Amino acid sequence: MVETPRRREIEDVASVLFREHGYSGTSVRDIARALDIRGASLYAHVASKQDVLWSIIDRMASRFEIAAADALAAASTPGAGPGERLMALVRAHVGVVADDVGRATVFVHEWRSVTGERHDQIVERRDRYEERFRAVIAEGVATGTFAPIDPEVAAAFTLTALNGIVAWYQPAGRIGPTDLADLYADLALHAVLATDGRREVPAGWREVPA
């Protein structure tokens, strides 16, 4: 994929249309019309509508992967535990979503529209990404920091909540991205922490008033 100003413009417009009308409800003609160019001219920059979708999905997947890797590295210092790592993963995920809600929405809702080998690739990448959450939760369960819960279910619960942000978050709204990330990190931790007195309270965790 060669990045050019026109290519980026096409992705910008397509992400808006895919978000508003869905991938299946958007045609190449719709994208070209929004750019005020002829459909044939669009093909000078992209191979197909599927190619545009893949560019958006691939770019967002990479952003999530890099953010998660950086978050885990930063939260793996001496003294840090699974609580800090889970909070770091949550903050990283929210940060990517809040930074580009449009493309994040397309990623969350339209990745299944990717076809062929690319579909297999994105499924594999999603599983590797989710495994970071499962592993951290499993670590917390094993150490008694977290309640004795199923890590796979808990990870799915957490990621479902995080991806649901795309349905309502407004960058210009009353909650900024940092506050949103902190709030979701606290909520995610409250959902898994052990409540029998064995828990280790992670740095940065805040008690929620009763």
Short description:
67% of the residues lie in helices and 0% in strands. It has 210 residues and is mainly α. The model has no long low-confidence stretch (mean pLDDT 90).
- Terminal-residue CA separation: 52 Å
Radius of gyration: 19 Å
The shape, in one word, is elongated
So, CATH architecture of the domain at 50-192?
Orthogonal Bundle
Assembly of the depicted chains: single chain
Q: Mean pLDDT across all residues, rounded?
A: 90
The portion of residues forming beta strands comes to under 5%
- Uncertain segments are none
Tell me the major beta sheet: none
SS-based class: mainly alpha
Quick one: CATH class of the domain at 50-192? Mainly Alpha
What this model shows, in words?
There is one protein chain. The protein is mainly alpha-helical and 210 residues long. Helices cover 67% and strands 0% of the residues. α1 packs across α6 and α5 crosses α6. The N and C termini lie far apart (52 Å). The relative contact order is 0.12. The model has no long low-confidence stretch (mean pLDDT 90).
Which keywords apply here?
210 residues, mainly alpha, Tetracycline Repressor, domain 2, 9 helices, elongated
